[in-house]
Specification:
alpha+beta, transmembrane, 15 strands, five-stranded mixed sheet, six-stranded antiparallel sheet, transferase, HisK_dim/P_sf, HisK_dim/P_dom, binds adenosine-5'-diphosphate, Heat Shock Protein 90, Beta-Lactamase, phosphorelay sensor kinase activity, binds magnesium ion, 12 helices, single chain
Length: about 425
């Protein structure tokens, strides 16, 4: 048999209906249920009253119609045994001998459990009267069973929680997908689609991510192509300028061309780094030599103080790009230094990372701008107070380079003034640790 396709609404409706019915039954049973112990106490408290009722039936002549009516009115079943004569209002009474065998006296009455049912009876001369409650058979439980309705209710609630979670799972997936897309992970796709109308939501999100990915890709391709195409005429202009007689104007023009060249180079690098670790050219390089190479570049070495001995390890990194990071962090620190105090460079290995930090004594960065310094073209100072004429892409690229190496680049201000850039690489970048 094929189960008809049900929408989310119908599924939820069925779930709630079934749960409500089962829980209501369980609550009713749980509220009416009493233990065998309490049932006996109940009987012993009403002993005389019950005995008199049974006695009345026993003393009267056996009137089947009246017995039937009594049984119906009191919601009980009655069995009367007079000598060899036997009459019962229901046919599920056990043998009288079975009743007597299990009998437990409560005053003049007897309480007896046969099978799963409870009976109350009394004997008078040649007559015995047995009653059993139609409901009591459902609600008198042995001690250990008294909690079952509540346990079932809890199990049903747990089951419906599980079903509900499964039904609403696609919403969680949709939220995750939206989050990943907003974080820029356009390759993320929802893999499992529900059989309800929520499938439209999950497939639409997948389609949206695919469309966005295509859009960004073509935008990037366009940017790369334009940047690339601009480089050739810029190169030609530079050569032509060099052939002219040098004066102030040619110097300005050369500086502008250099700026544009840098800008294009960094834009292209930013696009390349978007692919993460795939673009890295990993090589093994001795760490102290790497630092030395960067410091021996013009202007840098005499303004930098290495605060602790450099770890004598070899790194497996993209040497050119790591040098770019180090060079830019040190250059920024020097550019923003207000005093002659040296910029501090320290390299330490503290598992799980290798930490390079560059600390300066400049003005620091306003707290609300700390995270923004890593966004493209961001300058904390306004145009008239810039300490550099940089493009504003260096820190953005440094962060991408760190992330491509599975590392991090963070910044925080130091007391009383200045800031510290911390560049961490995973310990696996150290050749000896591999
Ligand atoms: N050591 C520093 N102290 C204060 N501000 C800094 C420091 N390093 C970077 N910044 C701020 O971050 C901005 C971005 O830096 P960067 O990406 O190197 O771009 P650029 O140097 O081209 O301006 C800088 O314009 C500056 O406002
Ligand atoms: Mg800079």
């Amino acid at each position: 048999m094929k189960i008809p396709h049900l929408g989310l609404f119908s599924r939820l409706l069925i779930l709630f209906a079934v749960t409500t019915i089962i829980i209501s039954i369980c609550i009713a049973l749980g509220s009416f249920a009493i233990t065998e112990q309490r049932a006996k106490i109940f009987i012993s408290e009403r002993q005389t009253q019950l005995y008199e009722m049974l006695q009345q039936i026993a003393e009267n002549p056996l009137d089947k119609e009246k017995l039937k009516a009594d049984a119906r009115n009191n919601r009980v079943s009655i069995m009367v045994k007079r000598g060899t004569q036997l009459y019962s209002t229901a046919d599920n009474f056990p043998e009288f001998s079975a009743l007597t065998a299990a009998a437990q006296p409560i005053g003049n009455l007897f309480f007896s459990k046969v099978g799963s049912k409870y009976f109350l009876y009394a004997s008078f001369d040649d007559t015995s009267v047995v009653v059993t409650s139609k409901i009591a058979n459902l609600i008198v439980y042995p001690e250990w069973l008294i909690l079952w309705p509540w346990i079932v209710a809890i199990l049903v609630l747990m089951a419906s929680y599980y079903v509900l979670k499964r039904l609403l799972n696609p919403i969680g997936q949709a939220i995750e997908s939206a989050k990943r897309i907003s974080e820029g992970d356009l390759a993320y796709r929802i893999t499992v689609h529900p059989k309800t109308e929520l499938a439209r939501l999950t497939t639409s999100l997948n389609k949206m991510a695919a469309d966005l990915q295509k859009l960004f890709q073509s935008k990037n391709e366009m940017l790369m192509a334009i940047s690339h195409e601009l480089r050739t005429p810029l190169g030609r202009m530079k050569v032509s300028l060099a052939l002219l007689q040098q004066n102030e104007i040619t110097a300005d023009l050369t500086s502008d061309i250099n700026y544009m060249n840098d800008l294009i180079g960094q834009l292209l690098e930013g696009e390349r780094l978007q692919q993460g670790s795939r673009v890295l050219n990993i090589a093994t390089y001795y760490l102290p030599t790497l630092v030395d190479d960067v410091l021996s570049e013009t202007r840098l070495s005499e303004r930098v103080e290495i605060t602790s001995a450099l770890p004598e390890v070899a790194l497996r990194v993209d040497v050119g790009r790591i040098k770019f990071v180090l060079r830019n962090l040190i250059q920024n620190a020097i550019d923003h230094a207000t005093s002659e105090e040296k910029v501090k460079l320290s390299v330490t290995i503290t598992e799980p990372s290798l930490l390079i930090s560059v600390t300066d004594h400049g003005p620091g960065i306003p707290t609300d701008m700390l995270e923004k310094v890593f966004t493209p073209f961001f300058h904390a100072e306004d145009i008239n107070h810039r300490s550099t004429d940089g493009v504003g892409l260096a820190l953005f690229l440094c962060k991408r380079i760190a992330e491509a190496h599975d590392g991090q680049l963070t910044v925080n201000n130091t007391a009383p003034h200045g800031c510290q850039f911390s560049f961490s690489l995973p310990i696996s970048c150290i050749a000896a640790f591999e």
